[in-house]
Structure formats: structure tokens, C-alpha cells
Amino acid sequence: MAHRLLVRRIWKLSSKEIRCLPVSSATIATSSSFSTSLQPSTARVSLLAPSHTVPYTSHRQVSFNVQDNEDFTERVINSQLPVLIDFHAQWCGPCKILGPRLEKAVAKQKGRVAMAKVDIDDHTDLAIEYGVSAVPTVLAMRGGDVVDHFVGIKDDDELDSFVSKVIGQ
User: How far apart are CA 169 and CA 167, in angstroms?
Assistant: First the structure.
């Protein structure tokens, strides 16, 4: 099992790096001279051609993991959008249920709200600063100020109404 996960990570890393490499005639000659694959080298090179790569889009993700205090300040406190902050922990069962539900509710808003995920074990200082005493805790922040919050798990309808209230609908 661990071997499969390691292979997947290496494959994802390798395929990302390969997509970024420019394809030149020197690269084609080099790759074909060291070919150990049963496929002809032209088939492999065509997969690397820019027309077959996944286009890069610069839109923001629906949710993101907070990396440190500076990242929190930049992406949450200084955000132009309202932000839901999900304080969670890896060991918390209800957090594992609430997280995907909350992400789905935020995704329905199509970019009108962002979601920050804060692991309380990694960022204890943020949890203390915002008075988090139980997980899952969700804070709603607009313009750097906490405007609403809830503690515990909620169903999909309650989450949708919470998110709508936060963005002002």
C-alpha cells in the first residue's frame, strides 16, 4: 500500500516536471537514443508537446490550507472576499465529516467566498488567538473581522444558509 502511494507521488511529480520542460529537437534525439520503452519515441514525444499539456489557470482555489501566520494574514485577514476559517484536527472524526460538506457549500457560491483550513495542532497560536476551544469550529471573517461562527457539525442545508448569510444573500 505504501509503495503504491509513493509511486503515485513520484508519478505526479514527474508528470508535472515533464509538462514544464520545453520540447526541442535535441530533447527528441536524446530521448530516442536512450529509449527502453516498447513504444516508438514519437508517441512519447507527442505526449510532451505543448498541445497535449493541461492549460494552467490562474483562478483561486475554493479552499486552501493555511501555512503560517504570514499566510493567514495575507490570505484571510487581508482578503477582499469573505473567508470561512475551518479550525480542524487530523484526529477529529466530526472534522472529517464537516470539511467536505463545507467545501461543497463554498463551491456552490462560485468564488464569492473563500475557505481557509487551519489545523489546530500545527497552528495552536491561531486557535488560541481566535478562542477555539473545540473542533470543528468555523469562523466567518469579512474585512479582517469575525462576523459569525459555529462549533460542531451541521447538515448541508444549515451550511448553505450559513455561507449565504456570510456573503450577504
Answer: 6
Is the pLDDT reported for residue 45 higher than 60? no
Rounded distance between C-alpha atoms, residue 87 and residue 84, angstroms:
10
CA pair distance 14, 18, nearest whole angstrom: 6
> Regarding predicted confidence, which is higher, 157 or 10?
157
Residue 137 has pLDDT above 70, yes or no: yes
Q: CA-CA distance, 102 to 113, in Å (whole number)?
A: 12
pLDDT tier at 88, thresholds 50, 70, 90: very high
* Distance, CA of 116 to CA of 48 (rounded, Å): 35
Cα-based distances in Å from 95 to 44, 87, 92, 108: 43, 8, 5, 20
Residue 33: burial class (beta carbons within 10 Å; 0-12, 13-18, 19+): exposed
Q: Tens digits of per-residue pLDDT, 94-117?
A: 999 999 999 999 999 999 999 999
- From residue 97, alpha-carbon distances to 88, 101, 156 in Å are 11, 7, 11
By CB neighbour count within 10 A (0-12 exposed, 13-18 middle, 19+ buried), where does 135 fall?
buried
Helix (H, G, I), strand (E, B) or coil at 54: coil
Residues marked as catalytic: 92, 95
Question: pTM of the predicted model, to two decimals?
Answer: 0.65
